[in-house]
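Bench notes, afternoon.
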Amino acid sequence: MNISENKVRKKTIEDFDNQWKLQGDLNEDYWASDEILIDQFSNIFAKNEVKNKVIADVGAGTGRIIRTLFKYDPKFIFAIEPSPTGRAEISKNFMNKKNLNIIASDGLNFKTAEPCDIIFSLGVIHHIKNPTDVLKNIKSNLKSKGKVVLWVYGYENNELYIYVYKCLSFFTKKLPDGIVYKIASLLNIIIQPYIFLCKYINLPMKNYWLNVFNKCGMQKRRDMIFDQLNPAYAKFYKKNEIEKELLDAGFTNLRFHHRHNYSWSIVGENN
């Protein structure tokens, strides 16, 4: 990893630390629901696979994902989170969980106390520039035949959205969070007629707007827009690109799910 990549990674962590100060509450909105997580897995991963397993969540944020995973009785969970605010929220949200260890580390440098059966990293890898080294470290913390479960932004069918995103984020990445939140609130209103038309017309990203975004409340919709505009780095992966990253890291038996035709869920195996 060169100096430039390291700088981008550190800035992204700082961005999310600031973001967790403004959002991240584990309420009952669809954004933090069991349903949205299970929707990401589809038929390539069954939620009950975590039962009695040692698992980890790389880039755990404030604990949105591990809250659902705890419901399926894992033996132990390692929550890997580099941001102080995220770790503080996890500690607060799960203070009574004895089978949880919060690790203050990024994806490249963490080490679990014992090898894991399954390591999750949902919505994280696409924020890491050239993540092969991170994926190799995830692999090194898995048992033989252990699984990695990922979710990343997809490129296919999102070309128009990506163009708009790049135009907006070029400016919003440089703005204070408070101003970006106001922009996100405005966009949240502007996008509503488009979502309404998606019910009747096959518009770009129709499945996402109707089956994910539109199920969230107005506050979380704003937060989701902010989440797109704020981080220093984000990549929209073509299937062959994320496949190459995982193969280069040494994973095998890859399975893919093109979630609502806009993003990629992947399960890989440690050889």
